[in-house]
Specification:
eight-stranded mixed sheet; Rossmann fold; five-stranded mixed sheet; about 375 residues; globular
Length: about 375
């Protein structure tokens, strides 16, 4: 079953959430619930990058009114930069004001770094999955976002936040679209909620812009829910590789076009393959994980406040430079003209560096910030 609601303003949000739960006809009496929200944001926290605590607060109250037992809201730590830096669970919930949720009766915040896990092998990866999913009513709660690497970030991709940090890196390394589909086969939520009241358009998940759509999508199948979200923001489902691979994996089918409310479609600006800085600097994330992305960001910020700022200005406005992170072999096959302008960052670029004889590179998983700084200042 799939439902789409349009939320006009925050005042009617509680009413709409209750309407959705009633229309879904869920039997929640005495059921213990686990909610995995989208907490992909680091500072500064964007409303379109994270499920805000006000929405979760209203959702929890509605679920408790339906007679559920306990509610656990869980997330794991996220990549920061270098090996010794990460955004811890405590830091994430503080930045997102989730600590206020703990005041609700029968609601608990859960650090997934501390839970027991079972394993399931898919392709090259042995997923480490929280064991609690076996005996909880699992709600997969995500934001509606466009995404530079995967086109969109919806319920299928949101499940990456369940597995271990090493699993996340492996998924980026071995093929993010394929392994999102594998994860969709391995873990089946009871309910998926795509919250797009304030969505993200453009170069998400970290460089996009807030945009109000008012969309709230609920369903018991991730493929159906994600495909409806894509159609409602003007994105061709066939261009979202992990969505089509999930169909082939038997995770679900694309939504019936009859459900799409044509009059409510709000086309969002789609993500591009690169971020352009100044006139001549291009950054291509390809398949990079947050470890490389944030290490590069930190290195650039350090250069900005250093005596080498003039070198960065040259890259921005006078010397064409393409910074590549992630597995960039396919990109280079299609864009060989940029070969002489490349700085490659991270271990995932090794094959491309060796194959094409790229001279400027910094390896590491994630790479050392000081080494990136030095490379930028050559």
């Amino acid at each position: 079953m799939i439902l789409l609601k349009k939320v006009k303003n925050n005042k009617e949000l509680a009413k709409v959430i209750n309407e959705l739960l009633n229309e879904l006809k869920l039997s929640l009496v005495n059921k213990n619930i686990f909610i995995k929200p989208n907490l992909g944001g680091r500072y500064p926290v964007l409303r379109s990058e994270n499920n805000n605590f006000e929405f979760l607060q209203l959702l929890c109250k509605a679920l408790l009114d339906k007679g559920c037992g306990t509610i656990e809201i869980g997330h794991s730590s996220l990549h920061g930069y270098e090996f010794d830096k990460k955004y811890s669970f405590d830091e994430l919930i503080k930045l997102s004001h989730y600590t206020k949720l703990a005041s609700l009766k029968n609601v608990k915040l859960l650090n997934l770094d501390t839970v027991t896990r079972y394993t399931e092998k898919s392709g090259e990866i042995t997923f480490e999955i929280p064991s609690l999913l076996k005996n909880k009513y699992y709600i997969n709660l995500c934001k509606l976002k466009t995404h530079m690497e995967t086109g969109v970030s919806l319920s299928l991709k949101n499940q990456m936040g369940l597995v271990s940090m090493e699993n996340k890196k492996q998924m980026h390394r071995y093929g993010i679209h394929q392994y999102i589909a594998y994860l969709g086969k391995a873990i089946t939520p009871n309910l998926n909620i795509i919250e797009g009241i304030i969505a993200m358009e453009g170069n998400g998940p970290h460089h996009g812009k807030n945009i109000r759509t008012g969309f709230l999508i609920c369903g018991d199948n991730m493929v159906e829910a994600d495909s409806l979200a894509c159609k409602m923001i003007g994105i061709d489902c066939n261009k979202i590789k992990h969505l089509i691979l999930s169909v082939k994996q038997g995770v679900g089918d694309l939504v019936d076009d009859n459900i799409v409310q044509q009059k409510n479609i709000k086309k969002l600006l789609q993500a591009s393959e690169y971020i352009k800085k100044g006139i001549s600097l291009y950054v291509w994330p390809t398949t990079a994980c947050s470890g490389c992305i944030f290490s590069l960001n930190k290195a650039v910020n350090d250069v900005v406040v250093s005596k080498n700022m003039l070198r960065l200005i040259k890259m921005l406005f006078f010397s064409k430079t393409n910074i590549l992170i992630g597995n960039c072999e396919n990109l280079l096959e299609e864009n060989k003209s940029i070969l002489g302008t490349i700085i490659a960052i991270g271990d995932c670029t090794k094959n491309a560096v060796n194959r094409h004889g790229i001279k400027k590179y910094v390896f590491g998983c994630p790479p050392n910030i000081n080494n990136i700084r030095k490379m930028l200042c050559l």
